[in-house]
Amino acid sequence: MSDERPSSARRAPVALTLLKAFGARRSLKVVAEPEFGYAGYIEDARGRRSFFKGAAFDLNPFGAASIARDKAYAAHFLKAAGFRVPEALLISAPAFIDEIRTKNPAVAERLNDAAAALAFAGRVGWPVYVKPNDESEGRGVLRASDAAALTRALATLSRDHDRLLVQQAAAGRDYRILVLDDAVLAAFERRPFAVTGDGVSTLSALIEARTEGFAADGNGRKIRSDDPRILDHLTASGLTPGHVPRAGETVDLLPNANLSSGGSAEEVTAAMSPHFGRIAVAAGRALGLRFYGLDLLCADITAEAGDYAILELNAAPGLSHFHRMGPAEAACVEAIYETLFERLVDTLQAAP
Questions:
Q1: Which CATH superfamily, name and number, covers 87-169?
Q2: What is the reported pTM?
Q3: Between these two residues, 96 and 263, which has the higher pLDDT value?
């Protein structure tokens, strides 16, 4: 569940549609920029405004939200607060190091480069994951199983990003837990974009059919059959597009489970144990967040104890893709937004 940038060729953003309906019921003015509906504000009778942009609302403090977006800093402060996070190393792109060197050579010497990334991976073990340090929606996440793959991943991502995070792999099922003001709103188990073999078709054919299905159902998932991340992940898994999976065999195609990248999700709120609910609430409190999605890996979210790894906290968790998965999912999302909007109004009315 990640924030989504709308375009003029697509339907109105789910959050905006629900916010307008809420505003009409509560006699609130809702204004959005007309081209995309991506940003705007709600206004009460006294003219006080609460702004939004994408899935970011006026609830989280700016500093806390900025820390959450910076994966390296978020992991640092979570670890310092006693939470379990995968070991990681922040890497700077060569062009960025060169730029800093012209301004402050001493700082440039302290920045980690590709050599440091290779040394780190050799120490923590393969595979490792490489991702932009401040992106969302799973954009740019690559899996590297050896030094050659890591070198390629760093070179690819360094073309568009100044800072990259190389992260130790962690085991477990992938969950997102939504929290607002110390209360868990929902929990979802997420699964990566994948195909299921029929014993005849190649991966290439299965992928093409799957992505064509995305276009047909209008879910707007940001994945194409020729997405280079798919080939990278297959290569890292020892597979090729010409491989024919066995009938019933599931093959993951991406290293992340974001719905915006073709993943799927199932609500597991009622099954989640209080143990993991407490972890989710405490982690957000440690970063000073009110509303967020916590991404967590663990063996079983129903367990009353057990190991886990927090991957990140998203201070602007979007729900559009989950809303479009079916009637039950839509009802869940609409209840979450109703609670969120009520809290926005409470905050607005408490303002001087």
A1: ATP-grasp fold, A domain (3.30.1490.20)
A2: 0.88
A3: 96
